[in-house]
Amino acid sequence: MTGLKFEADGFSVTYGAENVVLLAKEFALLRFLYDHRNQVFTREQLLDHVWPLEYPVERTVDDHVYRLRKKLRRWSGLSIRTVRGLGYKLVLEQSEKRLQPSLNDPQMNEAVHTLLRRYHLLGQGTSLLTLAAQEEQLGFELNPWYRIYARFVQADIAWFLEEKDIPAAEILFWCLLLYWATGPVTPYTVQQCERVLSTGALPPPHARELRRLNILEALVENGETERAAALLPETHDIVEREGLDGFVLPVAVLEVYLCLSAGRLNKVREQFERVEVMLEEMPYLRERGRYTIFKGLWHLREGNAEEAEKLMDEGIDILHTAGQELMKIKAVCQIIRYLEMHCPHERLEHKYKRIYERLDRENRLSVLRPKLASWLEHALDTV
After folding, report:
1. 3-class SS shares of the chain: helix, strand, coil, % to 5
2. Do residues 87 and 179 share a domain?
């Protein structure tokens, strides 16, 4: 990939022997992205740089990117990529990568992945995605797990349905969790979890997480609290025996949800104290957001709708700020389900259903979830 040549007089761009004439703002946008290639810019930042002193909407950026992609699609080696939850970046696939010695520096790659692991543990999705998006510019090789996880945390169902390079057993796990987390849990969802576990096809770490954490939460949400409670001691045992420190706080937050759904309100108070102490030591945003929402549900159960709404909104906002798109969708689904099953409240049900509808539109859930369900059925039939 050689460089692009820009001719401002006629808004033309040349690559090799090929020339394309653009509209003025298409030209300005492409030039800005090219001058800052491999850097991610939000729509707001692009509006500020390309449309200064004007008042277009964010959709303007999307429309211009769409037209640029159409006009430049025959130029291999150049692409304007969407970085979900962040914005856009222009990427040139060229030999520059070989000039970055850090690519072959084990210490540099270990340092970057240590940072990624920490961001993951702390629930800082936005930080993790920002670092992962700068792979080419910073000169490191993103390992396969984080390449997948970056898509997962953004609820990027389309990518998982189209990706061909992930082993079948690996992608089965991620697709199952995407389906579970983006809509209401039903008996069918629980059955899918059980079917996946019964195949024995999952890699051991994924099988352990599904069996000891995810399926318990699915059971709680489906109203099978007694069954979840019966499985919980074994989960505690394994977490302690195998030293699974990363599971300790998520399991404690899950136990809050279980006690709430089972109506054990006195037990909930004890769990609140325990989790709040843990959050002081382990300030994980993902768990803090979820815990705040569950505390809101408890206030609703106690008849304090005003405080409940405040806490639920705060929890959703924590997940949003942390870049936890998938967890935010899951949390809204859980609020709606809890209201329907335990604390009917017409105004709040309407409010959170409207929030889910917006998330549905933004993530194309109504279109992609049926495809995901069909994919899962086919995958399980062929395992």
Report:
1. 70, 5, 20
2. no
User: What type of residue is 274?
Assistant: R
> Tokens 């024995």 belong to which residue?
200
Answer yes or no: do 54 and 109 share one domain: no
Q: Are 23 and 66 in contact (CB under 8 A)?
A: no
DSSP class per residue in 255-269? HHHHHHHHT-HHHHH
Token pair belonging to 102: 């850090």
Locate 282 and state its tokens.
């382990």
Q: What is the mean pLDDT of residues 242-266?
A: 94
Q: Where are the alpha helices (DSSP H) in 144-244?
A: 144-153, 157-162, 168-181, 187-199, 204-209, 215-221, 225-241
Q: Which two tokens stand for residue 111?
A: 């340092």
For residue 78, the enclosing domain spans 5-96
Radius of gyration of the CA atoms of the chain, in A: 23
Q: What is the pLDDT of residue 95?
A: 43
Q: What pLDDT does 1 receive?
A: 42
Greatest Cα-to-Cα distance within the chain, rounded to the nearest angstrom: 75
Task: Provide φ and ψ at 318, rounded to 5°.
Answer: -60, -45
Q: Are residues 296 and 172 in the same domain?
A: yes
Q: How confident is the model at residue 83 (pLDDT cuts 50, 70, 90)?
A: confident
What pLDDT shows up at residue 94? 57
Q: Residue 84: give its domain's CATH number.
A: 1.10.10.10
Q: Which residues contact 304 (CB under 8 A, 6 or more apart)?
A: none
Residues 190 and 306 both lie in one domain = yes
Pairing of strands 78-83, 87-92: antiparallel
Strands 78-83, 18-21: pairing is unpaired
Region for residue 323 given its phi and psi (left: phi exceeds 0; alpha: psi -120 to 50; beta: otherwise):
left
Going by C-alpha positions, the residue among 222, 235, 182 that lies closest to residue 376 is 182
| pTM score | 0.79
Both 148 and 161 in a single domain? no
Report pLDDT for 141: 85
Residue pLDDT, tens place only, 299-349: 999 999 999 999 999 999 999 999 999 999 999 999 999 999 999 999 999
